[in-house]
């Protein structure tokens, strides 16, 4: 490590915005920037983004951080990005239309068909129960419904790997991103030919899989001109957002549970074992940045999205009408259980404990005696109950939870953190640095440039912030509300499945 280059850059391509942080060798965040980009929904179940929007936002956010710390301070760069988005590139290395991102569920019927025909292989090789979210399902949908588009593709890139290519000219992915696609053999850390065939593609369409914690390429002169970075700065592939947030939350030791409240809610547990797949629908193993570990993942499809949706609704699209902190403050006088109001957070379908793309969100128990305060409380409780579903699943699979950490945007709401503590009946600690995925990407870059092992860089960076102690007097009300929630959630999932039949 030189005396000048004393920070690494973490870039996280999220669902709604890119976040960039510079993290020093001392673990301190030196600078940060963010830029949003739009999301298109051209048809029911279709959710798309333009890769060029990712790149423009990334270049602008990186340039802002570089201006703050200096290009010479950046010793390396790590990447993170939303899982299960796919970009098709033509023979001239131009995107063949918009990317299908993880929220896109157009492939639900295709996924069900593939799961019925290839279930044993999916469970044995990819360690997954296939859903519409997976890249495998999306590619199979394109093979059936847009074969000319797929046929024109020279390569398929995952979200962060498109940015890796724009920064370095290197075509590569990492095991964590690849493990979520349904196409990788999780033991060999390589693409599975039979599953590629099921998707209707050749394995050569997919990028080579490189280690998360190694250098994949270096900043090109074109990327340097766009971002202000120094040409030749090394770049590590990093990991998909789940692996990055696990590192950023310090989920590197067994028993540490990370809960993030970004657009989606991720519930992650570090483990060294891989349980039998198929016992628990809604369970996904993701390869850790440390290949000796596995991340157990439970997913709340609409985590922070649920509360931001309610804010948009109550403010009638004009935040000036009702500031976000003022909205969450409405719930301060509402007791646990939201006076009988329940909310299931299935705005974009359900994931854990039952994957069902057609499931939808809803309130129950509302009467004319209720209003916005009870709705705000119910939404926060509904997401917390879905987190409880994930924890219960891990425990059924033999996992042990000894510490709970929360991070990302929704964790800024103290009341939400207290609700999660009450629902889980465990103390909850908020991570001091909430942007877990971008920080995790920067820490993976520190390992890649030789500043220490993963546990060492995590130990000097990830710090606990506010602790939230559960209130025992709330436990019984939370348990009763959870039982109501489970009945409502089961009814909604059953209705979605019967409606599909």
From TrEMBL:
Key words of the record: Kinase, Transferase
Listed CDD domains: ASKHA_NBD_FGGY_EcXK-like (cd07808)
InterPro entries: ATPase_NBD, Carb_kinase_FGGY, Carb_kinase_FGGY_CS, FGGY_C, FGGY_Carb_Kinase, FGGY_N
Pfam families in the cross-refs: FGGY_C, FGGY_N
Primary enzyme class: transferase
Residue ranges occupied by any Carbohydrate kinase FGGY C-terminal domain in the UniProt entry: 260-448
One MF annotation (Gene Ontology) recorded for this entry: D-xylulokinase activity
UniProt feature coiled coil, ranges: none
Domain Carbohydrate kinase FGGY N-terminal: 8-248
EC number: 2.7.1.17
Family: Belongs to the FGGY kinase family.
Protein name (database record): Xylulokinase
Organism: Prosthecomicrobium pneumaticum
